Amino acid sequence: MTGDRPRSVRRSRPRPRVWRGAVLGLAGAYFLLPLVASFVFTVHVPGQGISFEAYTQLLSADGFAESLLLSLGLAAATILLSLLLAVPALVAVRVGSPRLRPVVEVMCMLPLVVPPIALVTGITTVLRWGPDHLAKTPLYQTFLAVQDPDFPVVLVLAYTVLALPFVYRSLDAGLRAVDVPTLVEAARSCGASWPYVVLRVLLPNLRAALAGAAFLTLALVLGEFTIASLLGFQPFAVWIVSISGAHARMSVAVSVLSLLITWLLLLLLSRAGTAPATVSAAPAASRTSRTSGKES
User: Fold this and answer.
1) pLDDT at 283
2) DSSP characters over 155-220
3) How far apart are the two ends of the chain, measured CA to CA in Å?
4) Which runs of consecutive H residues, i.e. helices, occur in 13-135?
5) pLDDT for res 70
6) Half-sphere exposure of 36 (CA within 13 A, CB side)
7) CA distance 158 to 145
8) Using CA atoms, how far apart are residues 152 and 71, in angstroms rounded to an integer?
9) What's the pLDDT at 285?
10) What pLDDT does residue 11 have?
11) What's phi and psi for 45, nearest 5 deg?
């Protein structure tokens, strides 16, 4: 009797692997079937059979390389600026002023409340101040520089605002998973400076959170259309829409290609975030022990 109980228990247990495989299969079909259908539309020409002409024309299309490189440059600048703003602020709040965390959270979540069209209206109003009020001042050249079509800095600033909620959530989750006060106190007691603490102690332990923030920011910038279009710039998403009317098959082909490029970049970011985190307070401790040994 007692020997049969474990067998009955094993038989009555559910099989999570079967349900997990079914859910993953449905999710994969949900994402892959539209992609496969789009690819078939680009290569199957009625009356001609299989043709890769849409992809061969895409590589030589006017504006393809320029718009793609512009979007990648905007994404890199937005990721860098967002992390430079968010990481020091959140570390300072976590270590020095935990009571300010709700205030910082509300400020970082505000872009989710403001519609992109309202943000574009505000940016356009500010940019009009240059010709209207600052034409005879040195700031007028600054207004012209941030609107350079080759690399519009104004888009980087706008995208940084839009990405701030996602960057905050990712970094806040990473900081909550790490005992930041203990790490900072240990490194500081070993003689490490604040730049060393942030760069060599905290950032390695926040690698997954940093990769997640970069992951979300990259996806946001590569797919953003409203702000860039209304401001008159042509990154990759705007270029895709601009050619969709005259070259429908090519526009679908470039959409498929952009998805593959985005997935590849996101895969690289996710692989960078899965590396093991290390605490690098040991070098500071060894230097401190060496100096104390020399003094004694």
Assistant:
1) 46
2) HHHHHHHHHHHHHHHHHHHHHHTS-HHHHHHHHHHTT--HHHIIIIIIHHHTHHHHHHHHHHHHHH
3) 73
4) 16-43, 53-59, 64-95, 101-109, 116-127, 129-133
5) 93
6) 6
7) 15
8) 10
9) 42
10) 54
11) -105, 120
